[in-house]
Amino acid sequence: MGYTPNFSLGVWCGNNDNSPMEKKVAGFIAAPLWNAFFQEALKKITPEKFTKPNPVSNEIKAVLKGEWRGGTTYLIDSISKKTRD
Q1: Using an 8 Å Cβ cutoff, are 1 and 9 in contact?
Q2: Which residue, among 10, 76, 8, 7, has the nearest Cα to 47 in the 3D structure?
Q3: Hey, how many other C-beta atoms are within 10 angstroms of the C-beta on 4?
Q4: CA gyration radius for the chain?
Q5: Beta strand 75-76 with 7-9: parallel, antiparallel or unpaired?
């Protein structure tokens, strides 16, 4: 996966029969394919820079610090996969 402000590209390599691939083989296929395509695409796209976000506050959100502040617990039925009351 890779992206610019106006373009994103992901490449997936795998077998269509769900059989496992050797990990290093996929990397030798996906990375050069992704790079070659992205290099050509960037030639045709107007360059843009990312804009720096304007934070509302300086406080780091709890979830980004790994804190869980939720308190609601849900039970899910193992057969219907629906929540139980």
Answers
A1: yes
A2: 7
A3: 15
A4: 21
A5: unpaired
Between β-strands 7-9 and 2-4, what pairing exists: parallel, antiparallel or unpaired? antiparallel
pLDDT at 77: 84
What are the tokens at 3?
A: 């992206």
Q: What's the farthest any 2 CA atoms get from each other in the chain?
A: 56
Task: Give the tokens for residue 17.
Answer: 């029969």
Both structure tokens of 30: 């996906």
Interval 55-65: pLDDT, tens: 676 778 888 88
d(CA 16, CA 57): 47
Q: Residue 14 — φ and ψ, nearest 5°? A: -175, 175
Q: Could you give the 3-state DSSP secondary structure of residue 14?
A: coil
C-alpha to C-alpha distances, 36 to 13, 21, 42, 64, 72, nearest whole angstrom: 15, 22, 10, 34, 47
d(CA 37, CA 77) in angstroms, rounded, equals: 45
